[in-house]
Structure prediction request, 350 residues.
Amino acid sequence: MTANANRIDELQRRLDKIPRVLLGSLPTPLQEAPRLADLLGVRRLFVKRDDLTGLGLGGNKVRTLEHTVAEAVASGADLLLGAAYVHSNHCRQLAAAGAKMGIEVRLLLRRSGDRPVSWQGNLLLDELFGAGIEFVEAADTFTLLELARGRVAEFEASGRRPMLLTLTPASKLLGAIAAMRTLLEIEGQLRAAGEVRSSIYVSSGGPTYAGLLSAARLIGADIQVRGISHQFDTAIQVDIVTGLLAEIESLLRLAVPPVAPDIEIDDRFIGPGYGLSSAAAFDAIRIAGALDGLVLDPIYTGKAMAGLLGHAREGRLTPDDVIAFHHTGGVPALFTCADQLRVGPSPTGV
Ligand SMILES: Cc1ncc(COP(=O)(O)O)c(C=O)c1O
Prediction:
């Protein structure tokens, strides 16, 4: 199956109707990593560099924010709210978007247990970009969403026009829409490199995966999308993705055709839990650094690379395979893990 030019144009036209402000440096490059490909035993490995989307040290949420901030601007919002766990990449990119657009940003950040907050990585950048930061206690993301909705109501009562841009169903759908654009970029870049058949590896809790998969199906691309879960069990994530596919269909007024293999999510690389890294992710980070000068993050892309390496070890990859590894960003969080990552003194003793 080869992607069909008419279907690509049609999808691009529909995506272009969704309001967007330009925040990122797009398209991001697709770079080949031959030494990592050798280690994996595949014909070619490419890395889609969404860590290079530009704004506020980059990441895939810059793409989502192009849509959510456009909605906020259209609705006359004068305050952008973000709620997430303490070292959220989404919140960091939201803080940068607010700075660029000249709109105030307030972040409700959920601390992990009673661990001390380290003013490093994303949190340091949130402050640097001028966001107001409030630490909150919330047992889970549902409680956090309720809390954030409560804050929205309070700001409205005081005469502000706030809009919550994280955790909401609308932000997840627009995250998926943003990832559909990414798939179109990847497909075109692979085609330019002479490749039509490939598998994408991605870390996603649902939106990015649903966007990549739906776009691949809609254009008839011979691209499998393999999700490495950072949070949910496979069954839960399949439900989330299925729900998003239906929402994408109704927003774009397009029927996403089913293809085999279907939704593929591997939940064996989550490690100790959401927002926490794992020994396998640290190993993967070291390997990607040593063999490609590629910097991965401890929570998402490190786990995705651990999944890809795991699949190679299990013999799931073949010497004919072409893999596109989707680097979704998150690199600032690496610096919160310096102690765990450091292998020992360098030969020069520094
Ligand atoms: C670096 C990085 N990768 C992947 C993801 C997963 O994105 P989603 O669950 O929206 O598909 C996130 C989400 O915040 C992220 O920050």
In short: Residues 61-169 form a domain with the Rossmann fold fold (CATH 3.40.50.1100). The chain has twelve helices and ten strands. Residues 200 and 324 are 5 Å apart (CA to CA). The longest helix spans residues 169-192.
